[in-house]
Every structure is written in C-alpha cells, then in structure tokens.
Known about the structure:
Number of strands: 3
Oligomer: single chain
Distance between the termini: 30 Å
Structural class: alpha+beta
Amino acid sequence: MSMQFFPKLSQNFIELLDDDEYYDITIEVGEDPNVKIFRAHTGILCYRSPYLRRYLASNKKNNDNVLAHIKFPNISPDTFQIILKYIYGGILSLNENDTSDIFKILVAADVLHLNEMFSI
C-alpha cells in the first residue's frame, strides 16, 4: 500500500524556504530602491528551474565557503516571492483581479524556464 502526503511535503518545503539557517545561495531581485535578497537552496532551484540549473552549473561557487549569489534586477521582489513559493511548494497564489501581476509572474516564469506554470 502506498500513501501520498503532498500537502505536508509542500508545507515542509515552504518551511525550508523560510528557514534562515540552511541556505546556500542568495538571490537579489529588483532595482533601487526596491531591492530584496532572498535565501534559497541550490539543489531545489536546480531541479525546479532548467535556467537556474544551467546558470549555477556554469557559475559554481569556490570551495572557500563563499555563497553563490544571483541578481535578477528585472524581477520585482513581490513577483519573485510568488515564484519562490511556487518553486518550493507548488503553490501559486494569484490575485485574479490584477492582470499586471499575473503577467509579471508569467514573464519571470518564462525567464526561469518554469514551463509547467504555463499549463496551469
């Protein structure tokens, strides 16, 4: 017999995203004065985003314990927060009344090659 516990798994990955201890990459998004730095995990990013997998493979961190750092100045912090929640937990929270936000999310998803978002 097999049982699936996807809601709990999704919740645990969202908790991992919010954890400030075990991250190994920082991602800077937005432009001044609206810049935010997110903490994330390369293993999850690489398996969820083909773009990030290629980017991180070609820009591996040195063995001197320096964290990998990525910049996405053309993605707003609010949009990237939604994208990260989707990457980690499979949860996509959209405001259906604001089509400009939906468009920004889809543009960011396209940049990161999150193709499954386009089948939703």
